[in-house]
Prior knowledge:
The protein is α/β, with parallel strands linked by helices.
Amino acid sequence: xxxxxxxxxxxxxxxxxxxxxxxxxxxxxxxxxxxxxxxxxxxxxxxxxxxxxxxxxxxxxxxxxxxxxxxxxxxxxxxxxxxxxxxxxxxxxxxxxxxxxxxxxxxxxxxxxxxxxxxxxxxxxxxxxxxxxxxxxxxxxxxxxxxxxxxxxxxxxxxxxxxxxxxxxxxxxxxxxxxxxxxxxxxxxxxxxxxxxxxxxxxxxxxxxxxxxxxxxxxxxxxxxxxxxxxxxxxxxxxxxxxxxxxxxxxxxxxxxxxxxxxxxxxxxxxxxxxxxxxxxxxxxxxxxxxxxxxxxxxxxxxxxxxxxxxxxxxxxxxxxxxxxxxxxxx
Length: 331
């Protein structure tokens, strides 16, 4: 028999939804409506654990986790179970051995919107469900081309744009994980030196759930010069999340984070950005604004924001970082 949480979600996904311009593929809920969907699900995180996974410049507290991420964790748990059941019956139909493959979740959104915190909180919460104890998180930063390659291709000023990533390597990685490979390796990125680490890597050992977080993970497949379409990374996702906010708010968060980093990571002698550590407040704000306007805003408008409609779920944040509404794509 289905539990109260499962019944609530099933009723939500089966009801007709109409938007201001007609039928919409999403159902939209405010904070209170969303929070009510997981009344019987316990909150597994403590304040100390939350402090460990929250990101710089992205304040989050247990109330936010309880209201937003507890229902989301339960929803994803239901999706994992449903996908596993579908895999088993399909394998039976095909006469194959039913070998469980990882459930892959994509988390997308702008620089400074808080997608990294979302991914880390979900990793901690999903790992506490008894049927998904092994949850891995990989960021696409590791698949950026090394700085030497970006400089050679004159792409340093477009770091984070789709062309600055080794998309073939990322595709191979996700495909191998999704195929059920016992061990898959990925490059590791160092935010201090702003470059790929040559002597370290991420090793993924056949997880129950893999979360892939990055700016462009929901990009559609590219069409080559002959008009042929290849696979996209998102084709391997079982569920995808887009973290959204007003552009003006994201810019403000980006500038605030830049100012915080100037007092912390930027002051490290090994930091790529050490030259910014001694800036005055006024110059730091000005420079951060230039970085946003010339690099991050164009990337958001041209490449990231257009992928929002491809997500299964959209978390929309207000000016204080708190999620104000949730849009869930109907089945």
